[in-house]
Amino acid sequence: MIRELIYNVPRPGYWIDELGQVYSSKRGPRKPLTPYIDEQRYVRFGLWDGRRLTTIQAHRAVLFTFVGFPPTIDCHAGHRDDNPANNHVSNLEWQTPMANIHQQINRRRHVHGTTTHTNKLTETQVRAIAEDMRGLQVIATEYGITFGQVWKIRHHLSWRHLWVPATHSII
């Protein structure tokens, strides 16, 4: 089944099917658009509104179009099978941010610590920073991080998985 695309607002001239394929009828007969995969492996499409190009995520467009608006404004579009390429309407659901994080943790997909792409420190360095009694700015300069990050490490507000016993949940 193909429906007119809704993504926050209706998008005249664009259509979407239950699998997340977007079509355009802007220039004649309806044709499928070529998707691209972003750095987080989500399927995206570019839509032209006459003035500018807007990119949309297929999974959010499927939910908006076939399920309706999210129950709250901060809801995430979650994949039940953890496969960001599977955008079938039966595989998608609106989730609260907390439910999304819990699902990631339970399925061991939550990125934290040394697994993040922006990581600058090792776990050994973080433990050393937590025990270091010098000034925050001195430590920050030495490790190439911010004053605020040193403060968060010292107060166990970042790298929380290092401070929680293995039998307890992070959240």
Gap between N and C termini: 40 Å
Overall morphology? elongated
Estimate percent helicity.
25-40%
Q: What is the number of helices?
A: 5
Task: Give the topology string: H per helix, E per strand.
Answer: EEEEEEEHEEHHHH
Average residue pLDDT: 85
Number of E-state strands: 9
Sheet having the most strands: 4 strands, antiparallel
Describe this structure as you would to a colleague.
This protein is an alpha+beta fold and 171 residues long. The chain is built from five helices and nine strands; from the N terminus they run E-E-E-E-E-E-E-H-E-E-H-H-H-H. The strands form three sheets. The chain has a four-stranded antiparallel β-sheet. Strand 5 and strand 6 form a beta hairpin. The model has no long low-confidence stretch (mean pLDDT 85).
Short summary:
A hairpin with a 6-residue loop joins strand 3 and strand 4.
Chart the SSEs and their pairings:
Elements lengths: L1 E6 L1 E9 L4 E3 L6 E2 L3 E2 L5 E6 L4 E5 H10 L8 E4 L12 E4 L1 H10 L16 H9 L4 H8 L3 H8 L17
Antiparallel strand pairs: 1-2, 2-3, 3-4, 5-6, 6-7, 8-9
Descriptive labels:
elongated, 4-stranded antiparallel β-sheet, 5 helices, alpha+beta, 9 strands, 171 residues
